[in-house]
Structure formats: C-alpha cells, structure tokens
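Problem: given the chain below (132 residues), write out its structure.
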Amino acid sequence: MSNALVFIAIIFIVANLIYFFRNKTYKKSYFSTALFMKLFFVLLGVTFGFGILYYALSFQETVVVQSLSDNTPIKHSFGNLLYFSGVTMLSVGYGDMLPINAARFFALIQAAIGILLPTAYFMKALDHSKDE
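Solution.
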C-alpha cells in the first residue's frame, strides 16, 4: 500500500511540474528555462560543495550534533553531511542536525546563499523580461 502511495505522489509531482513548464496561459511570461536550469545546477553544485566542505571539516572536529544539550555527534558520513548541506541550502534546517564549531559560520553563509540565489534568479528574470 505504501509503495502505491509513493508512486502516486511521484506521478502527481511530475504532472504538476509538466503542467507548470508547458502551461502557456500567460501571453508574456517572465520564466526562462535557461535561467531556471542555471539556478538549479548552481544550487546543486553549491550544495554538493558545502557537503564536501563539511565532510572535510569533520576529519578535524565534530561539525554537526543531534542537540546542543547533550552534544551527541552525528556520524560524519558524506551522506549525512550532504543531507545537512541540502537542508541548510533549501531551508534554514529542520533541527535534526545542528552545526557546531567552524560549521556554524559556513552554515550561515550557505543559508544566505540559499536565500539570495533564488532572489537573484527572479530579479534576473524580471530584468530579462524588460529587454524583450
């Protein structure tokens, strides 16, 4: 039952994305596929880069813990730190992993990039629409 629900959810998400990209309702659209792909791959690359950075830092010191009260370190696998990087990039974190030591500074920088890059995308898309 759960596999069927997962499959239905994935189909629903894909259908919505296809609808978004193919919908030509608006005569003058500010959407640029090239800019969107550029944003997507830049966000992906920056997320991966910060994942590598956190992984490298984890050899020197603990970089993420479960909670600040007991300082239980999270296993420093690349997968865990890539997850932490992705959550930090796309939100400001779920709270299941908390950065400590040098990772706190880098997490702040990454969160700022995660907010500013999409904003810059929309500003660029609006600027691009004025040129046409």
